[in-house]
């Protein structure tokens, strides 16, 4: 039985299982585009308001450790 998922790139439902990620989640692959994806990814992009707040805090010369602690972000993400 095929899971009812849609490809996030093309929107077609012609997908197949493609192993698991290193965190144990099921990995899927679109047969049309060849793109791999996970159904419910852990990674979510930061919204524009958070990025604007980070830029303002950096202009005020607040240390990265303080920004990471208050906004609950990782230091490595801030340094990128």
Summarize the structure.
This protein is of the alpha+beta class and 80 residues long. 31% of the residues lie in helices and 18% in strands.
How would you describe the shape?
elongated
Question: Kindly state the mean pLDDT as a whole number?
Answer: 87
End-to-end Cα distance:
42 Å
User: Unreliable stretches, pLDDT < 50, 5 or more residues?
Assistant: none
Rg (C-alpha, Å): 18 Å
What is the β-strand count? 3
Q: What is the share of helical residues? A: 25-40%
**Biggest sheet: strands side by side, in what order?**
1-2-3
In terms of DSSP E residues, the strand content is 15-25%
- Class of secondary structure makeup: alpha+beta
Main beta-sheet strand count, sense and barrel state: 3 strands, antiparallel
What does this structure look like?
With 80 residues, the protein is an alpha+beta fold. It has 2 domains: 1-40, no CATH class; 48-79, no CATH class. Helix content is 31%, strand content 18%. The chain has helices at residues 48-59, 64-71, 75-79; strands spanning 15-20, 26-30, 36-38. The chain has a 3-stranded antiparallel sheet with strand order 1-2-3, with no helix packed on it. The termini are far apart. The model has no long low-confidence stretch (mean pLDDT 87).
Primary descriptors:
80 residues; three-stranded antiparallel sheet; alpha+beta
Secondary structure topology:
Blueprint: E1 15-20, E2 26-30, E3 36-38, H1 48-59, H2 64-71, H3 75-79
Antiparallel strand pairs: 1-2, 2-3
């Amino acid at each position: 039985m095929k899971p009812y998922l849609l490809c996030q790139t093309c929107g077609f439902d012609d997908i197949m299982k493609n192993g698991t990620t290193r965190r144990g989640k099921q990995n899927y692959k679109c047969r049309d585009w060849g793109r791999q994806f996970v159904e419910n990814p852990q990674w979510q992009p930061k919204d524009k308001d958070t990025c604007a707040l980070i830029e303002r805090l950096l202009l005020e010369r607040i240390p990265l450790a303080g920004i990471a602690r208050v906004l609950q972000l990782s230091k490595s993400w801030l340094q990128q």
